Amino acid sequence: MFGGSNRAYFTGTETSFGCVLLTPDTKTFYTDFRYALVAEKNAAGAYEVVVTSPEKLDGLLADKLASLGAKSVGYEEDVLTVARFKELKKALAGFTLRPMSSALSAVRTVKTEAEIAHIKKAQSITEHVLSAVLPLLKVGVSEREISAELTYRFLRLGADGLAFDNIVAFGENSSDCHHTAGDRKLDRGDMVLFDIGAKAEGYCSDMTRTFVFGEPTARMTEIYDLVLTAQQNVLKFLKAGMTGREADSIAREYFRANGFEREFGHSLGHGVGIDIHESPRLSPNNYEELPENCVVTVEPGLYTEKFGVRIEDMVVVKKDGIENLTNFAKSIII
Q1: What is the pTM of this model?
Q2: Per residue in 130-186, pLDDT tens?
Q3: DSSP-based three-state secondary structure for 52
């Protein structure tokens, strides 16, 4: 495995270089001098740790595979560049290369209790941070200033870092699903959208809340209530065994019935774990069943020319429903 997230998942060690080689009988973790100490600390005992360099890695892999009598080798087709794949194919000319990204994704989709505990910790930090930052909203403050406060407080409260770049959007910028915080200043009557998450113990959280700074218009209230009801419908019926497409359709059909199909342009949600976007997807294109104990977001949204509304919770999918990991209030008025 060459992907950093997969290396972290299997070895408990985040590195910018390395490879994990797994066979039915052996586990080998290749890394370089920079990570030798942490690799020995985290993986020694379970893995043979081999310290090498990028120039020597492929040769070591070929020798190891030959000594094991291997015939085929799995690789992550969604991680390797074309150039890197050509290098690997040349170095491992005596072996059959088989794509394995889907198989690895399936393993990581179902979360252990320990993984869920890490995600809960990240979510707790996220909720505490948003609670602390909301009182700082005032006329004239910029998106950039609030985003900086969020980052500072994430780190101060013990996060490893951000799960992704903060989305802080005022007014018309809330219509931009993945807005980058800028110099737009807050004013009375603005819609305010936060999409934020922490990373703790190597795992991510993800939460979106939308507010109005001041009194909402009738149109704002209408849109907000539609999004909230769509999310509540999904949270009520979501369970293991449902396909990602079926989950998405609960919100999508509700919006369609109310004349807002075109304003919901993204999928309902995604898996969360070591990466902020993982399998499974709650989307019209996912016909696979959701397994028990996967962690997904439920984030319907509607986006008009003047403002957007998105509300996002993160949940554990269970056999008979969900465990909602998000405990932050949902109110249109700050």
Answers
A1: 0.94
A2: 999 999 999 999 999 999 999 999 999 999 999 999 999 999 999 999 999 999 999
A3: coil
Which tokens hold the place of 126? 């996220």
Quickly count: other Cβ atoms within 10 Å of residue 184's Cβ: 17
Q: Could you tell me which residues come within 8 angstroms of residue 106 by beta carbon, excluding any fewer than 6 positions away?
A: 279
Helix axes 143-156, 113-133, angle to 10 degrees: 130
Q: How long a stretch of residues is the chain?
A: 334
Q: Residue 307, exposed/middle/buried by CB under 10 A (0-12, 13-18, 19+)?
A: buried
CB atoms within 10 A of CB 166: 24
* 3-state SS record for 5-22: HHHHHHHCCCCCCCEEEE
How do residues 74-91 score in pLDDT, each as one tens digit?
999 999 999 999 999 999
Give the list of residues 6+ apart from residue 186 with CB closer than 8 angstroms, or none. 137, 138, 139, 140, 141, 142, 143, 170, 192, 213
Type of residue at 28: T
